[in-house]
């Protein structure tokens, strides 16, 4: 049976990004349908942000406690892995999306379960789980928010080896005895932190020369030092050339360039992402299936008047919070255009403009120590042609850091545009620095001048006093 229905807006994908689009368009009075083939709430709720941070939080809390005299002796011994995994399950709603469905119902969005695909301009067909078809027409906009998936490299033997991706790593039912992690990015370091603390013997195999290569070099150095102290083996400049695991179960062997072999009980490949756009009918509207979708600052797909892409699929920033920011932009723009409200196209900081995607993307890596950054690194700023100066400070010398933990280790850097005397980027690494990041994001996004930042007085004794130390160092020249 085929049902034909018309809505103002049709959203493909009901992760947090798609849900936010629906929230904004419904708040503006537009009828909105949401299509989802898996769990409402998407990867972030069930296989990424929420379960991964639930695994990591006990690890970080124990590490902090062990660095405090008077408390360290009370937290000896291993973590209760069973209890940690049980709390992880709760934070992932036990992989049940009833709560998400209730929320979407509460805002008046119509939910269609099944695989949705474009069938020409403004047309979406949903192939339901019981064989039913729904033909949806969007009066104003179709929004693609189908996210991204892990990419496995083309290595002999890998396809049938039952390797973990980020999904399996965050939802595993027990800690493997030996875990090999291929990749040194965010997923790799966070999962190494979590599973080592939960009882696995972890070996990281990293193709490049260090960890977290997209951040300032000192970040990866601090994280690597801490992981090694915790017992993780890190091998850099290492290529995996083959994987052996007959039958897809049992121990797995990784063959390295040069012939060396590394054995493990499970292997996680954290080696990149691809857009989930290969089966959504892009070819019916003249776009390449499986491609990243290029958008303007209103998140409208270039060359179209009705198609929008938000979140991972547009490749601007593969971060949930940034996708939700884009969703708010797109939702407001769709509503304004539907209601013929003129947009101030010249206002780069207007509600219709995803400017922060260019200037102020924040990210926290929840390792021990934490890493937090917003805007450009020194290398990125120089490559972009800015005349800049990096201002560095040892976080351990800040009074608040010494109170936070004994033998505190950390580092802070701000990248100053010397022509405009504003911050282009800020990076912190150290325990608890994730909570410093929003102040840095405001400084970068708001283009607050260095002279004005001088009058933003940090409380004493907190780690945020590093702001004063950075500004003093800059003024000292």
From TrEMBL:
Keywords: FAD, Flavoprotein, NAD, Oxidoreductase. Residues 7-322 form the FAD/NAD(P)-binding domain. Transmembrane segments: none annotated. Its cofactor is FAD. Its EC number is 1.-.-.-. Gene3D superfamilies: 3.30.390.30, FAD/NAD(P)-binding domain. The keyword Cell membrane does not apply. One of its GO terms (molecular function) is oxidoreductase activity. Residues 361-467 form the Pyridine nucleotide-disulphide oxidoreductase dimerisation domain. Belongs to the class-I pyridine nucleotide-disulfide oxidoreductase family. This is NAD(P)/FAD-dependent oxidoreductase.
